[in-house]
Hints:
- The chain is α/β, with parallel strands linked by helices and 263 residues long.
- The protein folds into 2 domains: 40-145, 3-Layer(aba) Sandwich (Rossmann fold), CATH 3.40.50.300; 147-263, 3-Layer(aba) Sandwich (Rossmann fold), CATH 3.40.50.
- It contains 14 helices and 4 strands.
- A 4-stranded parallel sheet has the order 2-3-1-4, with helices on both faces.
- It is globular.
Amino acid sequence: MTPTAEIRRTGFKPPERLLRGLDARVQRWVGAYRRRDAALRPLREAVDQAVTMASSVQPLTDGQLRHRLEELHAAIRRGGRDADAQLAPALAALREAATRCTGLSPFPVQLLGAAALSRGLLIEMATGEGKTITAGIAAVLAGWTGQPCHVITVNDYLVERDAAWIRPLYEFCGLRVGCVTGPMAPAERRAAYACDITYVTNKEVLADFIRDRLQLGPLKSPTRRLLQSVLRPGAPQAPGVVQRGLHTAIVDEADSVLIDEAV
Length: 263
């Protein structure tokens, strides 16, 4: 595990203080500027390109499509400008993969939603517009980076249902998916969190994060763990810990999870 990944394993970013007065007004102006329609233009262009590329992707055999996905996986894993340039080809290939694996062909608006999620934006979709497949495509893009991706929803039923329904797409894209529910033992949770993509409720992911920090005791500090790895190379660094870190979260029903049920 790299030092950065080790820091993310138990670290978290403290919430920013609420701004007041002139600072709050400037923040609202900045938010309005970022929400303007022009800010979505690059994403809309990428989706248009992806739809245009459909004619070159559809004739591919399953083996050829998997090879294309592996190439995109490698490019996104490398990161940087190369990854940004691969957004449109990735959306085109993932659209075809989703069609073959689920029997449903994502609409351009779903591709736009997935692209927006992959850029850290909040999106709103009505019931029936296909949130599960939109989140699934975004989760593939996040999983391809090699960092943990958690798809967070409101109850165990949705966790198991959505993970089972979208699993064929993830496996076709070379990713492993797991789910964490309330009754699971620590060993089962550890195996689920070890997957590229993990479906989990907001309450379970928070409880496991807190339990991991309590389990580590003084070693919850990544600096101490790294120091111990140098001084005692053979000693276990994180015994009993189930999560491998918090990196990307795709939150379903964000208003409920982040406001109504927020701790």
